[in-house]
Amino acid sequence: MTPRLLVALGASLALLAGCASMMSSTTAKNAGGYGAKWFEQAGYPLDGLLQCQVLEPNAGTVNCSGTTRSGEPAVMSGDVNSPAGTGNPLVGSVGGREVFRVQPGQ
Fold first, then answer.
1. How far apart are CA 43 and CA 49, in angstroms?
2. Within 10 A of 74 (CB to CB), how many other CB atoms are there?
3. pLDDT class for 9, splitting at 50, 70, 90?
4. Which residues have a Cβ under 8 Å from the Cβ of 41 and sit 6 or more positions away?
């Protein structure tokens, strides 16, 4: 490979890594917003933001945590990028009790 081709390849890989990181950040932010809404609809409004991490960027597998206004731990996990009807549902629990379940794509 020529030096120019190596530099172009390196720049492309860096750009792709940056895009994956930005997509993961956006996925985490969106999951946190929807999760907060679902917790509130289930009768467990959150105290602050739901903090989410993207565990599998391609599948959009997220793991989120927060605290309800009553001080109980709130957890949500599942897939957000799967086609409708496939993947792991997003499951929200408060204090270890399931309070909602949303199938991807709904």
1. 16
2. 23
3. very low
4. 100
Side by side, which strands form the sheet with 90-94? 51-56, 61-67, 73-79, 90-94, 97-102
Is 92:42 a contact under the CB 8 Å cutoff? yes
Q: Does the structure show a pLDDT above 50 at 15? A: no
DSSP conformation letters of 6-45? HHHHHHHHHHHHHHHHHHHHHHHHHHHHHHHHHHHHTT--
Cα–Cα distance measured from residue 35 to residue 77, given in angstroms and rounded to the nearest whole number: 9
* Region 46-51 average pLDDT: 93
pTM for this prediction: 0.73
| CB neighbour list of residue 26: distance below 8 Å, 6 or more residues apart | none
